[in-house]
Amino acid sequence: MSSVLPMFKSWVPAWLIRITMFIVIVPGLLLFGLSTASAPGAAGYYGIEPADVQYSMIAFYAAVAGFFALERRFFVFTATREYFLICTVLQVATSYVCFHTQSLPVLFAFRFIQGMANCMSTSICITLIFGSLHNERAREIGYSVFYGLLLCITPLSTIITAPILDAWDFNVLYKFIIYAYMPGTVMLLIIMNNIRLSKKVPLYQLDFYSFFIYSCLLCSLGYILLYGEQYYWFQDQRIIWNALACVALMVLLIFRQLHLKRPYLNMAVFKSRNFNVGVFMIVALYIVRGALGMTSQYFASALGMDPRHIGYLMVANIGGIALSVLISSRLIILRRPMRLIWMYGFFLLLVFHVWMWFLFSTQVDSSTFIIPLIIQGMGQGMLMAPIIIFMISSVPPALAGSASAMGVFFRFTGFCGSIATVNYFQLKHKTIHINRFQDQLSGVDGIAGERLSAYAKAISAKGVAPESSAKIARGLLSRAIDTQAALRTMMDYYLFISIILVMIILVIALFPYLNRTRINLMSSQPSPVGI
């Protein structure tokens, strides 16, 4: 590898380069998943709502999507080693600020800057990785492995952060990230030569206006989808103003791109019918992926698992992703019909959702969920890389950069849409089920009183005073109602996603045109993040 890739010194073996790249990439991926590690812990430390914790993650993602098209200009202007040092220093500095601050606006601002720096560092890593893959087969495998690693962010974050959160406050995670950057940074600086991968291009005609408009659009869109259900959508002025801002910014952005000689985002990618199909599939995949987060909530709330044991279960999910990455890359190499690969993936996700619908209960052995989690991981891994490869191959090589940028945008949209869907079920359907349970309990003669009496007697038998027993009994009944309402909500959500998956599978089966796209990756490179 070193002989064909002059970025590295001649004595460096290929295996050391790959290990170093992995060590460099992981801290950046963990930065994204940090907000999902423990939303209640983050909310408690910063004194904010759990939704605000999610918005800090959306700000990070919006920065990645918004800065992607502009980042390449800085990359070709600066020497690679210097560029890597700049983005690492930025990520360490912003993590240090997030470690010390308890101000919500400061947290949002520096999470956004973190996203920009993360886009820079990931761009360097994938340029080094894919620059060494000189045949199409190697690139297809590289795509599958790269996007498979991105799919592991959520379970990997849970596994790594659980022991830390058991012993320290949430902000210590940022200190952990700072130290996690050190080994990879030192190793990469030692094995790298200080050269450029491309010809230096001056920083002229940088389209900061499009970057600003696009980033504001993404932040407003994320705000609407995250807080919409909580604020009753257009009954709240904040949602109305953000919706108006979204429409205005979208019109302004499209108008500007259509009239620029060198557009920030080339809208010509939408002339490809297969690219539009890929957009539909990637948004659908990200909306469906939200079920894994609800599964983790079920483990914590209904089954009472701590984060560490949830992390142990998530190892099964990572195993499923790894297995399906091997299978999907092999199917792509063998030129199996893309339509068939997608049907395999969505069918596996359908099996997971239907299976989980039957498993939801307050008393289940944790080992019961190992196989479903493996199947869920296999479904994700079977879809992610093939969809991205399909999208980039469906446009001319000159538009591959814009196709990647638009791919990040639609992954961001699907991610936010998944949050909006989960919030709808958790906030609206759960309330409906709570009211229904309370009506049933009050409408059936004596059932509520009998349950309260049973609770009170059991508590009194433990030596608790009668007055306290009655209060505790009412609390236990309320908790039982809340737990059952949460279970019914999760079942409603999984049923809804299962119906969507059936519809997607039928659409794929009835769309034979998909097989006519020729996969060609030699002139394309993956977008910097696909979280």
From TrEMBL:
Q: Which residues cross the membrane?
A: 12-33, 53-71, 83-102, 108-133, 145-164, 176-196, 208-227, 239-255, 275-292, 312-333, 340-358, 370-392, 404-425, 493-514
Where mainly found? membrane
Keyword Membrane listed: yes
Task: Give a yes or no for keyword Membrane in this entry.
Answer: yes
The record gives the membrane topology as: Multi-pass membrane protein
Q: Which Pfam families match?
A: MFS_1 (PF07690)
Sorted alphabetically, the keyword list is:
Membrane, Transmembrane, Transmembrane helix
- Name the chain's protein: Major Facilitator Superfamily protein
Q: What is the lineage of its organism?
A: Bacteria, Pseudomonadati, Bacteroidota, Sphingobacteriia, Sphingobacteriales
